[in-house]
Amino acid sequence: MSKILIIEDEAAIRRVLSKILSEESDDYVVTEAEDGLQGLEKIKLEDFDLVICDIKMPKMDGEEVLQEAKKIKPEIPFVMISGHGDLETAVNTMRLGAFDYISKPPDLNRLLNTVRNALDKKTLVVENTRLKKKVSKNYQMIGESEPIEHIKEMIDKVAQTDARVLITGPNGTGKELVAHNLHEKSPRADFPLIEVNCAAIPSELIESELFGHVKGAFTSAVKDRAGKFEAANKGTIFLDEIGDMSLPAQAKVLRALQESVVTRVGADKDIKVDVRVIAATNKDLRKEIDEGRFREDLYHRLAVILIKVPGLNDRRSDIPLLINHFTIKIAEENGTSPKVFSKEAIALLQEYDWTGNIRELRNVVERLIILGGKEVSKADVQMFASK
Ligand SMILES: Nc1ncnc2c1ncn2[C@@H]1O[C@H](COP(=O)(O)OP(=O)(O)OP(=O)(O)O)[C@@H](O)[C@H]1O
């Protein structure tokens, strides 16, 4: 069912539109409003899939209705109806976010086509928002401890900028999660976040992986290929485990950061890229610099903003929340209802040594869900998760 609202002060046109749409499809449910004010009231109270709105109306004109509606329900597409002499306004409404406009008297085919397109777009927007929510839920940062609150505040501030961020902390503490949150909250969120695990790529391949290559650059280069920097254009590149990158690769990355250009291996021309760089490492880069394994100039380029993610042992107050989060997640994944952990079980888990951090905690919770009783008890923890 598609709910369509027609806002039109001329009764004859309103009725024609309403009749055409109702006869076109049983799926269209049409509501009418006589002026802008009435229309806006209806938009506030009901969820419409499409609004068809006249431009010239007493009380409140179509442009105003559009602007007000965009503030409260930005996802509803608007098709404007323009009369003689307000074509310029009609074009302007497109700039204000209208989906399209039709002229008076409405041409039947054009009207029905526009309505169909607008409704399709609405479905896509809704689906997109739903998927985005789903994705961002996967990267939800659980925790209310002081260090986590501080990290969340940093993310909110820094995400809005293009500043480079270096995330440090032990394995399994959530560095990747921080990188995802930074990207998703940034104006670059509609463009890709490209992750590169620098430790997993052999040093002789990393240059081609990051910057691409041209056909014939080396034996296995059978065709031109773009690298990760190009793939991340307008978005973000996340260089994970940057502390494991070889010195020659570091030199190439430094150049990309300094000049915002990359050169495919074997090519002679530069390609301009607009990429935000986020890097992470579990290594102490200062020590790596002292020992000659990491370039100091690259460190300063990367570490404009430093986010230190503490180990789980330094934020034990988050453990109950995390256990709860993982029981719900695991239940969702298995299509079962979440298991309950007794207070004593949680208290005992809170005392354990979590050098394996959140990744280890999740594994333990999963093990307890599988092996423990209906309610996971302290004895279950002692038996299946003892340290
Ligand atoms: N605050 C948190 N809330 C919920 N889940 C979290 C949190 N921090 C980490 N996790 C989860 O723990 C796991 C490990 O996190 P992540 O991969 O981000 O860690 P990492 O520091 O990047 O690890 P590594 O250095 O080993 O790559 C992931 O499944 C992640 O979703």
Automatic annotation (TrEMBL):
Annotated ranges, domain Sigma-54 factor interaction: 141-370
Domain of life: Bacteria
Key words, A-Z: ATP-binding, Nucleotide-binding, Phosphoprotein
Domain Response regulatory: 3-119
CDD domains according to UniProt: AAA
Keyword Glycoprotein: no
One GO biological process term: phosphorelay signal transduction system
Keyword Nucleotide-binding in annotation: yes
InterPro entries: AAA+_ATPase, AAA_lid_NorR, CheY-like_superfamily, P-loop_NTPase, Sig_transdc_resp-reg_receiver, Sigma_54_int, Sigma_54_int_dom_ATP-bd_2
Pfam families per the UniProt record, alphabetical: AAA_lid_14, Response_reg, Sigma54_activat
Gene3D superfamilies, per database record: 1.10.8.60, 3.40.50.2300, P-loop containing nucleotide triphosphate hydrolases (3.40.50.300)
Sites of 4-aspartylphosphate modification: 54
GO molecular function: ATP binding
Protein name as annotated: Sigma-54-dependent Fis family transcriptional regulator
